[in-house]
Write a structure and sequence with these properties.
Blueprint lengths: L1 E2 L3 E3 L26 E5 L2 E5 L1 E2 L5 E3 L14 E8 L12 E3 L9 E4 L5 E2 L4 E9 L5 E11 L3
Parallel strand pairs: 1-10
Antiparallel strand pairs: 2-12, 3-4, 4-9, 5-6, 7-8, 7-11, 11-12
């Protein structure tokens, strides 16, 4: 990421997997049982759970049926806490389904993303799998210098 070679990490669980806790919002009907994100080496991965190394263990699943959500349009936007999108990237980013396990979505975030170490940001994940099958999560992370 441009600037001071900063990166996004989870501010609470950095020593463990950088899975970010989710917060419901937006008034959309929640269809997914669990949505977490892991960001490492500029790859943003959305899945249901991760191991200690950031490898997805389960994908995003439907809260009612338990089935993997594999056909959704998944998008991510990164904003500062005031709601202003970070610059250097065109938002939202589309996360294609990559499977392994089913329900896992991933996108590469450009090095052109302008960020400042120490700033807290919101990663907004939207999942749209059709009528009444939508979810929106707001995940919070802190930008840190690389180690």
């Amino acid at each position: 990421m441009r600037g001071k070679e900063s990166r996004l990490t989870d501010f609470k669980l950095w020593s463990q997997p950088a899975a970010l806790s989710a917060d419901h919002g937006g008034g959309l009907h929640v269809s997914c049982s669990k949505v977490l994100a892991y960001l490492a080496d500029n790859l943003l991965t959305v899945a249901g759970s991760f191991d200690a190394d950031g490898v997805p263990l389960t994908g995003v699943t439907d809260a009612l049926t338990g089935a993997a959500v594999t056909t959704a349009a998944v998008e991510a936007t990164i904003e500062d806490l005031a709601g202003t999108e970070l610059t250097g990237v065109t938002w939202p980013l589309a996360l294609p389904h990559v499977g392994t396990p089913d329900g896992t979505y991933r996108v590469n975030i450009s090095d052109d993303l302008v960020s400042t170490p120490g700033d807290m940001v919101k990663i907004i994940i939207t999942i749209d799998d059709g009528a009444d099958r939508r979810d929106r999560r707001v995940l919070y992370a802190t930008i840190e210098e690389p180690t």
